[in-house]
Amino acid sequence: MKIQRQAAEMRVLKLSVSIWVLVCVLLVAGVVVVVWYMRKKREFLRQRFFQQINRVRMENLRSRISPHFTFNVLGREINQFNGSEEVKHNLMELVKYLRRSLELTEKLSVSLQDELDFVRTYIELERGRVGEDFVATITVEDELEAARIMIPSMIVQIPVENAIKHGLAGKDGKKELMVYVSRETNGIRITVTDNGRSYLPQVVSATRGTGTGLKVLYQTVQLLNTKNKSDKIRFNITNRSDGQTGTEVSVYIPFRFSYDL
């Protein structure tokens, strides 16, 4: 009886070991499958994000006067222009703006310095249309190295363009536009403030446009944030809260932010 009991115990032990071995094999196989699936999913999402961002940016690109050839021809013809120097200067600035617009549209990120230089050119081109009472200031805190800080392309220009077109153009009295860049914790804060008409996204009018620029900007930020798991870009549009009319666009951009898709 004792021998039979020992034999039965050995069979139970062997069965238990076999079951545990099988469970371990299944667990390992499950982990391998999960890891393989996650890698495949990440690759699929990466490819989809890349296709989406390219589609968004190409849609924006197609909406602009684009070919480099056009700019070269315009520049050559303007150099031969015999009219006033002021008109010639404005036309050359326009060509510069259009060419730079194309270059920035083709890039996902640019330096803060390049973006602000582009914005300054745009402001000068629009100054005559906005009027003599137009005052624009661009301020970057001294401690910030604008040439080394990377930001999404057009993230300042589009809010500035909207402020001028939809907030300040046609406004009576003094028209103010302020761009301020400051350091905030582990990134920078960019604010674009105007004293024009307040932000009313629910209102559709001939002066408000189609919102294509903001749509492209929102989609770009959303795709980039999905790729960056830690700190993210935060983009907000609100009416001014200091008792004055106007709109404030506030953008927080982390220093350590990847623009690789």
TrEMBL record:
Q: Mind listing the GO molecular function terms for this protein? A: phosphorelay sensor kinase activity
Keyword Kinase in the entry? The reply is yes
Q: Its GO CC terms?
A: membrane
Gene3D superfamilies hit by this protein: Histidine kinase-like ATPase, C-terminal domain
Domain of life the protein comes from: Bacteria
Ranges for domain Histidine kinase/HSP90-like ATPase come to 155-255
Start and end residues of each Signal transduction histidine kinase internal region domain:
57-133
Q: InterPro entries given for it?
A: Bact_2-comp_sensor_kinase, HATPase_C_sf, HATPase_dom, Sig_transdc_His_kin_internal
Q: Where are the transmembrane segments?
A: 17-38
Q: What are the UniProt keywords, alphabetically?
A: Kinase, Membrane, Transferase, Transmembrane, Transmembrane helix
User: Per its record, how is this protein called by name?
Assistant: Histidine kinase-, DNA gyrase B-, and HSP90-like ATPase
